Amino acid sequence: MLPAHFYNILESYLHNRFFYVDFKGEETTLRSVLSGVPQGSVLGPLLYLIYTADLPTSNHTSLYTFADDTAIIAVHEDPAVASSHLQNHLNKVGDWLKEWKIKANATKSQHITFTLRRNDCPAVTLDEVEVPRSDSVKYLGLHLDRRLTWRKHVWTKKLQLNTMMRRMYWFMGRKSKLSLANKLLLYKTVITPVWTYGIQLWGSAAASTVDILERFQNRTLRTIVDAPWYVTNRLIRKDLNVKSVKDMVLERCKTYKVRLDGHPNPSIAGDILVPKIQRSLRRCWPSDLYDDERGGGDILT
User: Fold this and answer.
1) Residue pair 185/240 in contact by the 8 Å Cβ criterion
2) CA-to-CA distance for 242 and 256, rounded, in angstroms?
3) Quick check: 19 and 31 in contact, CB under 8 A?
């Protein structure tokens, strides 16, 4: 039970709110907001988490949520069994959505099979609408392809970085009058966070994939310092005190391992650092980068 003054605050927050639509200069009349909370409000995310706290779970699947982004994962050697477990969970979610009057758009959801095989898992439905299949999905800013090679994610980041550099070239290019210190500051505060996001995961990609961003970094730093052709990339990074992409992968992964080791929930470190799935290929896993004995050097060389 909430105190009376809490109730009054929530009531004033939700009641007497209106909206209108403005399209090409034409405006509708004011209409009352009958459900939901104001978008962008501070209290909105908290109320959403309270409202969806009893989202159904299942013994055969894993449910992962971050705000309104929800992922359901079913793991099994038999694709038919995996889809069956997933469908059973989706049925529970569908019933829960109807009970609490929430409308989910199944066509905006995606169904992906993570496997090295060519076959996909059987289709699943949400509210009797088939969930579209895809060979890659975007979740929390990370692009996951069906073989988990991270190549889709890295190429997407490279295109995004190229676009950013074209827009910023007038003050970061070779002919810019901006000081080197300010150019480097822009690189570290604007460019670097784009490709380092999720580096603890996609850093386990093949060396040829990581080299895509390594080449972007080399080209960008050479542009910033207006380096002639005979100056090596390693010397430029040393003079600017900038780590290479591969060195950044190892540094961030080791820092992340320390954070996981000190996490109050031991199951988090156990699931991430010690994978329970048997390997089928000699492929680098994120946990390999956390191994202090190997140090990741043989992986990223």
Assistant:
1) no
2) 20
3) yes
